[in-house]
Predict the structure.
Amino acid sequence: MERGEMLAVCLLLWSCSVCVVTAIQRADMFPYGTLSGDSVLMEGDDETSKVLPLPKPLYFYNTQFKELYVATNGIISPLDLPMEKQYVDDGFPTDFPVVAPFLADIDTSDGRGQIYYRVTETPSILNRVAQEVHRGFPDSKFIPTHAVVATWENVAAYDDHSVKAGPSNKFNTFQAVIGYDETDSYVLFLYPEGGLNFFATRPKESYNVEIELPARVGFSRGEIPYFLISRIEGPHYSVTSEEQSVKNLYQVGNTGIPGVWLFHTGNRNSFDNIIPASIGGLLATSPSKGHGFPLETTTPEYAEFEEYPDNTFDPDNEEEEDDYPLTGRDPEFQTAPAGGDHSEPLQPASPDAPSSPSEHPGHQVLYENKDVPLTSDPGYGPEPAERQFAPPSPPKAAAEEDPQQPQVPLEVVDVYPPHRNEPRLSPGGHVVSVDEEDVDFDTGVIHYTTENKETCARFQQQCSQNAFCSDYATGFCCHCRPGFYGNGRHCLPEGAPQRVSGKVSGTVTVGSTPVQLNNIDLHAYIVVGDGRAYTAISEVPEPVGWALMPVAPIGELFGWLFALELPNSQAGFKMTGAEFTRRAEVIFYPGNERLSIIQTGRGLDDHNHLTVDTVVSGSVPFLPPGAEVTMDPFKETYQYYPSVATSTSVREYSVVSAEQGSESFSFQLKQNITYRDCRHDNRAVALETLQITMERVFVMYVKEERILRYAITNKISPVGGESNQNIDECAEGLSSCGAHAQCVNLPGSHRCQCQSGYEFGFDGRTCVDMDECSSSPCHVNARCINGLGSFQCQCQPGFYGDGFYCSQQEGQTVRPKSQCELHRDSLQSGVELGGRPRVGAFIPQCDSDGRYRPLQCHGSTGHCWCVDSSGQERAGTRTPPGTAPKDCDRPDEPERPKTYCEQHRDSVQTTSPEGYPIPGVFVPQCDDNGQYRPLQCHGSSGHCWCVDSRGQERPGTRTPPGTPSVDCDRPDEPERPKTQCEYHRDSLQTTSPEGYPIVGAYVPQCDANGQYIPLQCHGSSGHCWCVDSRGQERAGTRTSPGAPPTDCDKPDEPERPKTHCEHHRDSVQTTSPEGYPLLGAYVPQCDDNGQYVPQQCHSSTGYCWCVDSRGQERRGTRTPPGTPSVDCDRPDEPERPKTHCEHHRDSVQTTSPEGYPLLGAYVPQCDDNGQYVPQQCHSSTGYCWCVDSRGQERRGTRTPPGTPSVDCDRPDEPERPKTHCEHHRDSVQTTSPEGYPLLGAYVPQCDDNGQYVPQQCHSSTGYCWCVDSRGQERRGTRTPPGTPSVDCDRPDEPERPKTHCEHHRDSVQTTSPEGYPLLGAYVPQCDDNGQYVPQQCHSSTGYCWCVDSRGQERRGTRTPPGTPSVDCDRPDEPERPKTYCEQHRDSVQTTSAEGYPIPGVFVPQCDANGQYTPQQCHGSSGHCWCVDSRGQERAGTRTPPGTPSVDCDKPDEQVRPKTHCEHHRDSVQTTSPEGYPIVGAYVPQCDAEGQYLPRQCHGSSGHCWCVDSKGEERAGTRTPPGAPSVDCDRPDEPVRPKTHCEHHRDSVQTTSPEGYPIVGAYVPQCDAEGQYLPRQCHGSSGHCWCVDSRGQERAGTRTPPGTPRVDCDKPVPVAPTQRPESVCERWRASLIEHYGGKPEPQQYVPQCEPDGQFSPVQCYGETTYCWCVDQDGREVPGTRSHDVVKPACLPSVAPPTIRPLPRPDVTPPTNTDVILLYAQGQKIGALPLNGTRLDATHSKTLLTLHGSIVVGIAYDCKENQVYWTDLSARTINRASMAPGAEPEILINTNLVSPEGLAVDVKRRLIFWVDSNPDMIESANLDGSGRQTLFDTDLVNPRAIIVVSSTGTLYWTDWNREAPKIECSSVDGQNRRVVVSDGIGLPNALTYDSSSGQICWADAGTKRLECIFPDGSGRRVIHPSLNYPFSMVYYRNHFYYTDWRRDGVIAVSKDSSQFTDEYLPDQRSHLYGIAIATTQCLSGSH
């Protein structure tokens, strides 16, 4: 059979015979039109009806609505609709509620169709709706009270009418009918035959591409609130998915009639999603037209079917089609029938036709077919009770095949699951396959089969992610993976506690009083490991709370689902999973009250929490308030059938009350639980019974919290499985169980089991109370109270709820969370993992006060430990699982303190973050008592040495690896004490890590007695000088090399004042703290008169040069050593250009600020032609080497001093590999970037074979020492210059251990990272035995003091240099207390860790009595001053060095107070800690009277300026250095106001605190009139450019330095006025943004011409797929081409003519007192107010601004001016409200995204926010005085207002992470947050002057709220705005611009209702809004 001849399938509701059904005709639609009372929607493309108020509310989903809107585009909504561009071209769902019979871009313009709508109570309409609903939902008792009928008749698609071929002849007709009563709503969609002729519409900007969007049919709830401030996508339901499914709308249906679709769309109590009618299946229209129709699926459940490209049924391909799923049901539960006569008609379920499902032939169970729920559809959840219906019945004979099969007792089972072997019902009814051979064309009867098999390959996604799928003969099943449990569709992790949440609703009659329960919360917590289930229902009214206490079966469901499993049993969740329906009936005796309980499992949420909703209805006995209910443990037997479990039982309970005492009652419970199972795995279907034991039942109602609680412990086990021969040890009293334990009899033995709430202790036998609170079962805002065998959850103060969920009460304050609670809550809420708690994480336990519990246990690992108050674990208290925990109340036992060795060792071991030592670090070894082991060894290097008791190395005991270690028990030998000179000398000799001095250092010479030799000479420089007994240089005794030394025995003579040359020379000589020059420094030579010798020479390098009288080198006169020097009397001659060598040489010579080379630097030698001399030598080190023409050293040519140099003319020879010594030597030589060695560095000497010479010597210092084969110095072999060297062939001898003094001394010597002491450090002196010399002296400062045997200074023994020292042998005398001066002095002296003062610090001088010496002097700076008795400096007594000091005995003269100038000057001068000014700071100059000198100059920069009497600079008087200064005595002329240029210039010049510009800043240049010079140049960069009169750079005029500049007087071609963006450009930008900014090569991007028009040829990206378009971008038919050559397209639009845009001027409304000004893109609109009503008739455009985007708007009521921000031009502007006024630009620089704007009328200021740099700025109303208020802690600032009356600024920041509203004073002070809680996108902000509150409109929360500035009194004015942007307040009304309505909306503050709206004719977004009044309002802002 051909595919086109395929027959359509038609299923009727009450018969299985096949018939032909005709689609509805237009006459069959509900009556419509004006004669029926309909309103007619206005013609147009995007129209929305006026509000259609409903006589009674309508429930859509579960939300109540009171009004509807009908829209052109085929939708109905209970909310006012946004512009169509926000939804019509987007996918489904919408973000607002919608009923969509045909959502597409429809246009009724030009009379093409009509849209009718009405709400009606006409009986005929309501009766017809009721009939349709009863046919589609047979169990429904729905009787509509109202209906809404909306009809779209002959409407057209939007772009059909614009095609040049003429208007389209494709029109659609369809209808939507909403019927509703007080609880439910249903919707009918009607599509008459021939009513749908177009099925998709083009997006409005798809012009030249054939793109069509299929119509969307369905329902959307829209966005719903989520956690107060945010919103999420709500539920939705789609009937269509692509164009083919739209075409089928009138060909099929779900009501038995093609083209008629019925849906249940809302319920007052609980409603998850749309439920389609389920009768008759999907029906096809008559086959007489010659073609069939596909069995198109129409609900989300058919997604699998729709994935196949060809889903049209084809009998010829039956075998192929068998693999396709043809139902939307879960295939897991669809089985093929075992047999039967399929031609027999299916009968509907009825009491007379019992149904009997069968899993296999011969295995059938008889069911009563009453109230069977349809529970097998996961897409919608079970139907409510009144909506459920039964499946069709199988043949009657099936019930008689197996009489042995037990039957379900009818008195127990009230509801049953669908039959297992019947095809499952889909939302559209039965869907079957058709066998072509069974079709009888004459009778129209179609036979069908149901042999479609589902496999894992296609349906595995229906299994849980923690399950695996298995295929079986008849289908597939899901099974949970190991470690999880469930039914395969839902799997939970084993061992984890389970949470349940849901709602409880219904009506319960207590006595005779009905009580409504409206969706109150239910929460349950189940400890799965032992079957304990805790249930809490909150907000239960008091009479019902007491009465429901006996109804424990509400919580028993959770006990059965998660019961503790005994052998050969399983809990309910393993069968039901998370989707089930439980129906129970409770009959109370003796009163026969009946209560129905329906509990529906809705599935698992993202956190694996189970959702269960509960509906209760009926009556319960009255219980007196305060009664207590107790229930004894009991057992209940469950019987299991396929897909259902049932039980019946009778319970007894006792009620104890004050009125009645104790009474006993009972109730009977009948229940069944229906669920879906999977029997494809051929499990036995034998009847199964299990027994559940409820060992403990606890019920309680808490009146104060209105919480009803159930706690039940459950175990499940087989029934009657015990052996008759077994001895019951429990019954015989033979058990070993103790208190709180229960005996469980086992075959041949017994088991002890702890009672509920108890667990085995560490001994495994004793039952101890289980701390349920340790697993944190309660809400984060609740506290858990553990009791014996149970626990309670109580909400924290300020919160209410059942403890499992707590919410905050309004107005309540909450105790701040403790550290423990914050710790616990962060882990419970999963903050660290993005909201998911970390599995197995330790959750700390807190007590009721929020403190850490002393004993903490890890719920997963079982470890326990004690903690302190901060939660830190107490060491040694951790115990593993199964061991007794520590007693945390017992205090820690004291440990012995760590010894010094252990602390040393542990500090090394714990320095790494991981707790182990840094690799290679020495770790000291300690003995058992913690003392240092005498022999210490380094584990990494192998070195060993001896230490003393303090761990200090004993000198001479270190041995390298592989050599015998020293005997550490042998004592050290004594030495004689060193003198100060020897210490000084040795301190320099031993400062290097290798044991030798710093290179080139001066080494003092001592005589045989260790005293300083009177004449000291520097071995490197040749200078000599005389010293005193302390080694201090005697002034004037220094002589240069070659000159006769001074007679050091001759006393000093008075000197004449030093000249500049002598100062220069001496400053070099005295720069070292020790009094000798820096190494290798150049020392200028002066003649006898102190003048510079004309020829200067460097004593170290041998270079000579000529100098002038100031000592400055004359260029070109420098000569290297050994060459004739220049005649310095000959004048300079012109020079030739320098060569590379000369540049190199001179760069070295000129690097010093003084004009001489760096010390000891290598200076290259150049020949007469300036080329490098082939052989270069270093004048300081004596090394020589060869270089190439570029001065680069040739490898292998370097020779040390005293060795023959290499022949540099000989070419290089290949070298052998370098040895370690040569590498060492060369690494020293090559460490400098210029290729020469570091200054004075030691260069190792290697022999001919490259090995280290055994004896090494330092060429600069003359020291020599022995080295081993690796070049390491052998200890004790170093000898100073001039002494016999050690025989390096003699082996080392051991040394005695060092004493404490020697360690101290040596530790000082090795404190530098390089291994030598810090300069000027104090080095202790030790005697021959290594003990401290009783008298210690500081070699640098000359101070001496006595020490004890430990080297500690004896108090009062310190003497300054030049004073007799204390007799250190005399014992200490009692000291008087220190005076303030002595304390001051000693605090300075003892601040250093080594016991000496910090260098350069001022040390006060005290007399013998400890009082301040009247005159104090600073030893370093030479300044002296007088002090009072408190040591405070006496003003005016400070004298610099070299000037006579003040007589401090003369009393102070009457000092006048300091003037402002003197305070200013002195504040600068005293800012340094040493008392002198900071270098380079500007110091103001004052005259003798302390007044500012009229002219001030900056000593460093040379700038001068005039100042007034206050020291303020007089504008225009500043002159640069070298320019004539201004006459400061000439009075100022009247100053004209500063121009914009001068403001700009001065703002730059005055930004520095010192009064001069920031270095490198651009300073604009102004002419004499203050206007910008036409050409501006940047002084630092040299760039120049032309500017206009506003200082704005003219494009294309910038030139870099050194290039010709542009003539700024020549006019620049002016570009035409900016045109608005064209359609082509807008579309292009939109698509590029859609592609993420980077279109692929094959993606289409519109091509536009320079004038914005469409290019005639358009192509897909870089492909050759091109076509022609017209001027509107529409494709020209027949022009598509795939060739390499693009199609020839002719432009169809004339070249554009550039015309000037109209001049913008103001046109205000007339005769109006109050106007709302609103910003709308390129215009500012004016909307008058008539009272508080919007006067739309007199609205007009105030100002048109082409090319602008006006955002912020504000009004100045004093000057009648409007201010605005322009986002496009990046400017702030204003204009007068007078007719004809023109705009004025105020600010046009440094703006990026100016948005909100405010005017301070009182202070004449403007404020604005810039949302791109995130700043808030202010300025005067004319734009001057601009300043930044805030540029930190802002993310997305938007609205800003100013309250002039209080001087307060408020603004919003819609930072999505932390939105807030802040305030400050208008000067930027006192910034604080006003509100940050419960806000989302605070766009709009205003001030309610009547109440003094700040109000905002939030586009995130959709609320309008107000609050007092102090954060109190917050209230919601309106809870559901659309999309507010800006807002203003006036006369108890709020007026805001709305982006959804694109208009102005009015809200009454009093009624909280919308009162008015204004929608401009031109629909586009409105931005800012302001109010303009003829008189200023109170509190204007």
The first strand starts at residue 39 and ends at 40.
